[in-house]
Amino acid sequence: MAYWLMKSEPDCFSIHDLAAKPALWDGVRNYQARNYLQQMQAGDLFLFYHSSCQPPGIAGIGCIDGPAQPDLSALDPQAAGYDPRCSEQRLPWVAVPVSFQRAFTELLPLAQIRTLQGLEELPLLGRASRLSVMPVSAEQWQILLSAAQA
DNA sequence: GCCAACGTTGGC
DNA sequence: GCCAACGTTGGC
Around Cβ A18, how many Cβ atoms within 10 Å? Predict the structure, then answer.
């Protein structure tokens, strides 16, 4: 089982939305992030990160429910993730089914995450990291969960 | 709202 | 294949 971190703007889709019902994590339009989505397997867990909000941080944990599938939102002109260059014949983007596991009682803010030891390799903390899907090692996972529960 | 960093695009 | 221009991300 693998661990991941995925970002979402809570105004668009928050951990509370996920708590209400399982969802498809779609709209990822970056190849590196896409490649990580393709590596995910049912049973993997991910940290749900709230971005572009005040304060940004990790809000809880979700579960990957199945393997990546074509992201049809890229073909839908009404969808936020519409990609006019895509077609049914050429659809490079994927989505993964996800479900809620739990919300932290308090958000673990980015400012606090930056103070933790042992997260130097986490892409989230890199200079202006824009990667929205990234792997998390077992060690990093433990550090972050411990901080969230402290 | 600002802007730095980064990915993508497209001319050559 | 280079690289300048452009668009986007996302913290602050």
Answer: 23
